[in-house]
Amino acid sequence: MKPTDTKNPEYFHKVVDCQYACPAHTPVPEYIRLIAAGKYTEAYMVNWESNVFPGVLGRTCDRPCEPACRRGRIEEEPVAICRLKRVAADNKDDVKAFMPAIPSQMNGKRIALIGAGPASLTVARDLAPLGYEIHLYDEHEAGGGMMRSQIPSFRLPTEVLNEEVGYILDMGIHTHFKTYVSSLNEILDKGYDAVFVGTGAPRGRNLNLPGREEVGKNVHIGIEWLASVAFEHTHKIGKKVIVLGGGNTAMDCCRTSRRLGGEQVKVVVRSPFSEMKASPWEIEDAMHEDIPILENHVPKSFVVEDGSLKGMFFEKVMAEYDDSGKRQLVPAGEPDVFIEADDVLVAIGQQNSFPWIEKETGVNFDEWGMPFVDRATHQSSNKKVFFGGDSAFGPKNVITAVAHGHQAAISIDLYCQGTALTERPAPFTNLVSKKMGIHEWSYDNDVVNDHRFIVPLAEKKAALSDRKLEVELGFDIATAVKEAHRCLNCDVQTVFEKDKCIECDACVDICPTSCITFTLNGEEEDLRSRLKAPAFNLTQDLYVSDTLPTKRVMVKDEDVCLHCGLCAERCPTSAWDMQQYLYKVTKACH
Amino acid sequence: MTYIRPKFRHPDLPKNDLGYTTKEYEGSLSTLCAGCGHDSISASIIEACFELSIPPHRIAKLSGIGCSSKTPTYFLGNSHGFNSVHGRMPSVATGANMANRELTYIGVSGDGDTASIGMGQFVHVIRRNLNMVYIVMNNGCYGLTKGQDSATADEGSKSKAGSVNPFQPIDLAGLALELGASFVAQSFSGDKQQLIPLIKAAISHQGFAFINVISPCVTFNNNPGSTKSYDYVREHIESTGKTDLVPEKTEILTSYESGTGTNVMMHDGTYIRLEKLASNRNPFDRMGAMNALQNARNRSEILTGLLFVEKETENLHQTINSSDRPLNTLMQEELCPGSSVLADINDELR
Fold it and tell me: Which residues form the signal peptide (chain A) (predicted)?
């Protein structure tokens, strides 16, 4: 193998698995260290700079960072990254003074943002401090998009959302709420320098089964019903409720139903339980509220008597898999199942919908009705129009929308300055030694043995009687600090300097997880087979040095490195050093 | 800001026949200087005992005084240990071995502990062919007292302070051969591929097994001009051939060309395999080994690998016909068989 090029900003970035997995690449270990040090405001700002909604995400994020966490590869559970983020948000001081200043002299450019969800708000946050005049359009009476209309208050209190949306709206944003944009042409005619579309995936899929038309008013589309509850138009639901679908929206629907009078609420999914799309913790929370989840039930028909809904019939199926692993649901041969219901909530997916974008605008769509959008620049076929969030590439999540927003803001800035969109600035990186002296590092290199701590919940009876009572109580500070110490500090890199190495093997002998091997070089597959401990995880790189005097190379498997610093501690010549790597995604505004 | 070894280990560490990983053979974290050769020897002992699947509680590790003699704390934390008086490890090992022949005895010593204060004990334990492994961690200096030349420092070797050693060194491997040791090897702490199989072979050998390991002192004897520095040793090393220990149940493969390899059957049914032997080297020839050692020395080379092994050897237990069973398993009736037996003995003497 060729020697590893650690000058490539992505090499060490990839070692910080949580940060690398995060669509917005938030420097996770950095803020976790700040939380452990009691610096909540600083921890909040590290988050805010990167992901704009720490309080919201600390409660509702899809957490792609947690399955990636290295801790999950050396013991059962990863660090509770998401819930630590919330600790920073809950315990911070007033952060208004740290918000970017808005210039008194604007730059003369005007930008329209359609939809006030996380993507648009991120664009606003990045462009307003640069002097852009931002116009934000949304059909609802307040900003936040799906964070307000689809995430129930018992998971995300309105005050938390208002606070974080407020930081952005306070940047002198011109808001046009309760304004449904029905024509992109009209917006373009207003002479904006650029338009950003962040309208999400607003159409919930319907279910056309026999009886559907007759029972119109007792069958609801999940996301529309959630929005209606959020905006206080709907206050109750029948005692017996069926929720169709196995995603996070279905989980929000069933739990909201329990709070609006639903006593026998059942979630019914077509697939096996193990293949449900909802996050495991959301499923757990639903089951904790006594909501059964029935698997392998395919909806067949609505049963209507005297014009009112009585229930639904389901066909029982089994999952069969062919050689390529493709799933097929085949009838189980059992009689159809009847489930009583007063109301049915349909949460079987969301679609994009752009009835308001005219053909003449030059924004072109593919055969599935999705706009042609450049993956890197977010520019559409109309050079002035940019897309981000769910409306760009289909339904994902809040953190992805934020990441899109940052990239689109860079593009819009470059476009308005007349620079090529491909000339994107490099990410900010910094690599600094943490050595203080003998046995002294300026980071906590002690690896604790604690297992993941559990977030306390509100008492069930109280939670079910109040739609707005937040269920998760968040870590108290003492527990948060303990959980923070579980972080392995993967951003403190083991940096090897070949010219200093005397090949004494001290690092090999001390490494608790047998990561380091000195051996003759070879191709990657061959090298992986010759290491001190097996290196089966191909997603993790091998760190290979240049050839040493004995013709061998140093090979380090990054997979389960604890970043404990013992290799550097035992190195007599400081050929190993522990250096903190800070990586920040480029943003239009820092 | 801590210097504690985390408890986590690689989740896919290989297991030996007992179901143990190397973790069960580790000791406490070393407090020797960073980069000390001794730590590599400790790691090799751990690996050798792991690979041989010896239950850790069936091993006794013994040492005297010195940097080398501190190392038993850093390996085999689940084994018996005795940190004895300076240079007196062989006496304690002899006593322990006489009391219980069923344990594996690993003695660790240094060049000072063996070649200076312990020389008298060293030569006698060889002479008696005690069934043990005797490893000398040889760094050519007194590291614990700031690096003075030891008795194994080569003539002309320069110390860190710049003084040149005017005296002839004691060649421990040569001495062991001369005194009739039944297993003699020499190695380098920086070459685990050679050292681990040698330790395994030494453990399997049912007599006195001596390994002299050159182990650089990074703090006091790793300077230019020293003949025991990492660089010097690497440049002047010469191997007798490749040694490997083949477990009993493994079929002996004959894929290598005849004449290039030799299998040595050990007492426990395992084999030591010697491959790529240097031409005209015979591991069963004591005279040849002594010549080869002397010739290498004349060329300023360090001859490493298995120098000599005696296939059929009689160890101390066999020589003095001592108890087959450990003394702690002998019951009162056996130890004190009663007045009739005493009477019989007395009758014999009349």
Answer: none
A296 shares its domain with A357: no
Is it the case that residue B279 has pLDDT exceeding 60? no
Residues B211, B138: Cα–Cα separation, whole Å: 10
Nearest-by-Cβ selection for B234 from A510, A550, A564: A550
Tell me the nearest-neighbour CA distance from A27 into chain B, angstroms.
Answer: 22
d(CA A235, CA A231): 10
Check A570 against B35: CB less than 8 A apart: yes
Q: Which of A505, A549, A569 sits opposite B40 (nearest CB)?
A: A505
Query: A338 and A226 in one domain?
Result: yes
- Give the domains, in start order, of chain B with CATH numbers: 22-320 (3.40.50.970)
A344 and A210 in a common domain: yes
User: A325 and A215: one domain?
Assistant: yes
Q: Which residues of chain A have pLDDT under 50?
A: none
Instruction: Identify the closest residue of chain B to A440 by CA–CA distance.
Output: B1
Helix ranges, A128-178 (H): 146-149, 158-169
Q: Position B83: which residue type? A: N
Domain identity same for A183 and A230: no
Q: What is the pLDDT of residue A317?
A: 94
Over residues B62-78, the mean pLDDT reads 97
The domain of A522 spans 492-584
In order of A220, A509, B65, B118, B144, the CA distances from B70 in angstroms are: 76, 17, 7, 16, 10
Rounded Cα distance between B23 and B18, Å, is: 13
CA angle B137, B142, B147 (to 5 degrees): 120
Q: Name the CA dihedral angle for A432, A438, A439, A443, rounded to a multiple of 10 degrees.
A: -20
Query: d(Cα A198, Cα A114) in Å, to the nearest integer?
Result: 6
Closest CA of chain A from B27, distance in Å: 11
Q: A329 and A212: one domain? A: yes
Residues of A in contact with B10 (CB under 8 A): 513-515, 533-534, 560
pLDDT of residue B259: 41
Give the three-state DSSP class for A355.
coil
Residue B253 has pLDDT above 60, yes or no: no
What is the Cα–Cα distance from B323 to B91, expressed in whole angstroms?
A: 19
Mean pLDDT of chain A: 94
CATH classification of the domain holding A190: 3.50.50.60
Residues A129, A452: Cα–Cα separation, whole Å:
40
Whether residue A459 is found in the same domain as residue A497? no
Determine contact, residues B274/B262, Cβ cutoff 8 Å: yes
The Cα A484–Cα A32 span in angstroms is: 6
Task: State the complex-level ipTM.
Answer: 0.87
Residue A62 class from Cβ within 10 Å (0-12 exposed, 13-18 middle, 19+ buried)?
middle
